[in-house]
Amino acid sequence: MRCFTVLGPSQTGKSTVVEKLGSLEGAPKKSSSPYGLNLTEFTFGNEAWCALDAPGPNEALAHVQHALLASDACILCISPAPEEAVLAAPYLRVIEASGTPCILFVNRMDEPRGRLRDVIAALQDYANHTLLLRQIPIREGDRIIGSCDLISERAWRYREGQASALIAIPESVVEREHEARSELLEHLSEFDDWLLEELIEDREPPSDALYAISSRVLRENRIIPVLIGAASHGNGMMRLMKALRHEAPPVGVLRQRLARAGNVDENTLTAVSFHAYHRQNIGKTVLVRAFGEGLRQGASLGGSSLGAVQNLANGRSSSAVVPAPGDVFATVKSDHLPVPSLLTSNATVAPPEWTEPPTPMLERILVPGSARDENKLSETLAKLSETDRGLIVLQEEGTGAQLVRAQGPVHLRDLCRTLSEVFHIEVTDRTPNPIYRETIAKPSEVHYRHRKQTGGAGQFADVKLSIRPNERGRGFTFSETVKGGVVPRNYIPAVEAGAREAMEKGPLGFQVIDVGVTLFDGQHHAVDSSEHAFRTASKMGVRQALSEGSAVLMQPVYRSEIHIPSIYSGSLVQIVSALKGQVLGFDRDETAKGWDIFRALIPGGALDDLARALRSATQGIGYFSKTFDHFEELYGKEADAIVRAHEERGVAH
């Protein structure tokens, strides 16, 4: 079986392309994943094929990356509108990082929305590979009625629902065809000395030789050929499928590529797991592509026995099913297989780095509808994070509530639907409580005596403490300067412990940071003093001193790396400034052509707004990662509102 992925932005007709390709020589068999990955099995040219129709939203990019792990080649569908070329930038980035041979298909050419050369020029800004036209459109007025193949120099007129008709190249196209063909041959000659010599000698190379060269350079992933058509009318489908058949590399090339990337012996690389999902009453289903022989139910794969092997189309299991090298199959009761991973008989190997999904930008707390679902929710989210690497599951600081980081609102909505439909857990979501701290603005001293008589042994401890602000980032410090044994040495650790306890909640209701406490005097009682008494005296004394130390609210500030296509860079300074952030600088992204990396300091409370603004300004393409940098003071009405809201939450709880 040969396997390819069809990917690209939403509304570019990917599913229609797959449907038409699968129907060229018979009826295809289709299966779907809850994550939006559709698999279509069909036959073409007496060969078995599997098309992976990857989900279109940028928020599903992790599933696109994983599909490429199992693909010999891919088809990138794009719009014929030059201004929409940037929407393909994330996909070109992933394709080039993966090393997957790619055919670029300009779909919906029946909609006149710009010149093809402008589309290719706009896309070239994001591609390190040369985008090389293999066809040019034939127009009648504003309508595109056919195409001309630049290798065979044959022209075809589209016919609705039928095979295209061979026609003579129209006079209006001849000049453009010669120009485009010369450009094609010039680029191909960069990878073939024979062709270069033919061109230098001004000899016309035969079409068969040119097809062989173009096939080789695609298999070697040297260029990205560009084909055109309109899948909804069946236009250009046969040419696209023939290009895949003759030019896409066999499964052995994928095996070599993955073995090299994973530092695995090619001969031991048996399979790759690339997708998984949970189904009611069935459990975890893992999709696998076989590279070796003998994969059947009970065979050793990934260090344990392979579970039931299922037919993709009907979901039926059979012990007689033995996938051949290249076959894609599903397996259940194979929960030991992580997804994605490279699989040998005895081990699982981490996938290549390029499969790492973008950092999730949307943080939400999931609140179960009933108390009995709380533990179930935690276990279920852990399962789902195993099958969806774009999802990160944490616990909220302070409350322990389930916090999820999702790629965006669509991703979050799909997660909640899966929880409801598959696991019967109803949840609502809310914004997490921002992590604030407090400190003091001025030093103070306190004398605190703890005395308690309970009938038996009493409690007595007397401490004199000085409290001062520490420099930012130093945290809590404790020291002592007592003399003469007024506080015995064995009680001083208890004084420090009490001071640390007092830092857990300051006068504003938040954890206290960057404060230094010094014990400089005190008293003890030979009978009634104890560690507990001194810890209590220290805690109460420090609390009193904090209330006298001019408490200041501290907000978290994060260092953010914002990744965006360069055409959107001009809007970013304004976005960061509006969020009271600070731009630190930007550079070209050395790993992705046409992208910039902005570095900025962003207040923690503005990260949600940054995610929204970034999605809006970049049509959902831009994303950012964050790391905590420091806390800084926050004053005025904004600080007062935060303190009031925190108090109200405390009362509500």
UniProtKB/TrEMBL annotation:
<keyword id="KW-0342">GTP-binding</keyword>
<keyword id="KW-0547">Nucleotide-binding</keyword>
<dbReference type="Pfam" id="PF00009">
    <property type="entry name" value="GTP_EFTU"/>
</dbReference>
<dbReference type="InterPro" id="IPR020568">
    <property type="entry name" value="Ribosomal_Su5_D2-typ_SF"/>
</dbReference>
<comment type="function">
    <text>Catalyzes the GTP-dependent ribosomal translocation step during translation elongation. During this step, the ribosome changes from the pre-translocational (PRE) to the post-translocational (POST) state as the newly formed A-site-bound peptidyl-tRNA and P-site-bound deacylated tRNA move to the P and E sites, respectively. Catalyzes the coordinated movement of the two tRNA molecules, the mRNA and conformational changes in the ribosome.</text>
</comment>
<dbReference type="InterPro" id="IPR000640">
    <property type="entry name" value="EFG_V-like"/>
</dbReference>
<protein>
    <recommendedName>
        <fullName>Elongation factor G</fullName>
    </recommendedName>
</protein>
<dbReference type="Pfam" id="PF03764">
    <property type="entry name" value="EFG_IV"/>
</dbReference>
<keyword id="KW-0648">Protein biosynthesis</keyword>
<dbReference type="Pfam" id="PF14492">
    <property type="entry name" value="EFG_III"/>
</dbReference>
<dbReference type="InterPro" id="IPR047872">
    <property type="entry name" value="EFG_IV"/>
</dbReference>
<dbReference type="InterPro" id="IPR014721">
    <property type="entry name" value="Ribsml_uS5_D2-typ_fold_subgr"/>
</dbReference>
<dbReference type="InterPro" id="IPR027417">
    <property type="entry name" value="P-loop_NTPase"/>
</dbReference>
<dbReference type="GO" id="GO:0003746">
    <property type="term" value="F:translation elongation factor activity"/>
</dbReference>
<dbReference type="InterPro" id="IPR000795">
    <property type="entry name" value="T_Tr_GTP-bd_dom"/>
</dbReference>
<keyword id="KW-0251">Elongation factor</keyword>
<dbReference type="InterPro" id="IPR041095">
    <property type="entry name" value="EFG_II"/>
</dbReference>
<dbReference type="InterPro" id="IPR035649">
    <property type="entry name" value="EFG_V"/>
</dbReference>
<feature type="domain" description="Translation elongation factor EFG/EF2">
    <location>
        <begin position="433"/>
        <end position="550"/>
    </location>
</feature>
<dbReference type="Pfam" id="PF00679">
    <property type="entry name" value="EFG_C"/>
</dbReference>
<feature type="domain" description="Elongation factor EFG">
    <location>
        <begin position="552"/>
        <end position="642"/>
    </location>
</feature>
<dbReference type="InterPro" id="IPR005517">
    <property type="entry name" value="Transl_elong_EFG/EF2_IV"/>
</dbReference>
<dbReference type="InterPro" id="IPR035647">
    <property type="entry name" value="EFG_III/V"/>
</dbReference>
